[in-house]
Amino acid sequence: MKLTVNGKIHEHAGQGSIDALLEELSANPAHTALMVNGSVVSSNDWKTTLLKENDEVEMLVFVGGG
Amino acid sequence: MSDTLKIGDQELNSRLFLGTGKFSSSQAMIEAVKASGSELVTVALRRFNRAQAEDDLYGPLAELGNVRLMPNTSGAINAKEAVRAALLGRELSKSRIVKLEIHPNPHHLLPDPIETYEAAIELVKQDFLVLPYIPADPVLAKRLEDVGCAAVMPLGAAIGTGKGLSTADMIKIIVRDANIPVVVDAGLRAPSEAAAALEMGCDAVLVNSAIAVAENPAGMGAAFKIGVEAGRAARLAGLMPTSEVAMASSPLTSFLSSND
């Protein structure tokens, strides 16, 4: 399934849940916040939220900032 | 004596807030936060990048225990983006506190008052404790208080300039009129400036560059801690009034003069 993850095309090979995508990308779920097509998806819903072809996913983490 | 700072439902013993950007390493940042005694630090959001996993501050910050995280909305150039950033930050921090900052122009990084005001209204509606970074504008500060912000954070000088309290006259008006905490955010370079901000009645200061790019960040964190404590203690003790004419501290009987 073709997705856009953080602005880059990503071919997802898992079963299509957000959890599966995070695992595929080696992202720590506890450290990640996520939006799909501009809407924030709470981590409580990651197991059950299924991604669709051409979805745009933004994955964010905390970094230093003032 | 208890002198707790209350911001919404949050109670803080330290009046020094720290930014976590620009440090040479996360270890240097952690040591500076510890030395500063700060209980509230800001963090930013950035796209996940597997190649730069060490930039992820979540782990290092969790070590700090009693330090609360205040995600900022840096990078947002309008209200809509700021609200989205705040929602994402809340997912990670699990806290209602947000530093609302919208500065569309990278040249001066000055906050956009109109977008900030609109975003504040929306974020208050969504149950955030909103601390907006604003120009030192007493009218805007009052308007943000009126829409339910938990504090206002006027700038001392532009971000990262180290030009100190260049807006002191306006900040004094904001302090005089405010019924919510006033936090000077941005521009401070020296602990004496933090002391001056607290002396003039500000409730706290937020410092990043001055500590992060000091030769010894932990040493500067400790120095700012003393500056903030001195300024607050002086405010509570009541500064003497100023006078246009000299007023002697010693008796002026001219007993050494041969004319008596």
UniProtKB/TrEMBL annotation, chain A:
The organism's place on the tree of life at top rank: Bacteria
InterPro entries: Beta-grasp_dom_sf, Mopterin_synth/thiamin_S_b, Thi_S, ThiS/MoaD-like
Entries under Pfam families matching the protein: ThiS
Entry-linked CDD domains: Ubl_ThiS
PANTHER family: SULFUR CARRIER PROTEIN THIS
Name the UniProt record assigns to this protein: Sulfur carrier protein ThiS
Species of the source: Pontiella sulfatireligans
UniProtKB/TrEMBL annotation, chain B:
One GO MF term attached to the UniProt entry: thiazole synthase activity
Active site positions, chain numbering: K99
Catalytic activity: [ThiS sulfur-carrier protein]-C-terminal-Gly-aminoethanethioate + 2-iminoacetate + 1-deoxy-D-xylulose 5-phosphate = [ThiS sulfur-carrier protein]-C-terminal Gly-Gly + 2-[(2R,5Z)-2-carboxy-4-methylthiazol-5(2H)-ylidene]ethyl phosphate + 2 H2O + H(+)
Its EC number(s): 2.8.1.10
HAMAP family in UniProt: ThiG (MF_00443)
PANTHER family given in the database record: THIAZOLE SYNTHASE (PTHR34266)
Name used for this protein in its record: Thiazole synthase
Organism (species): Pontiella sulfatireligans
GN (gene name): thiG
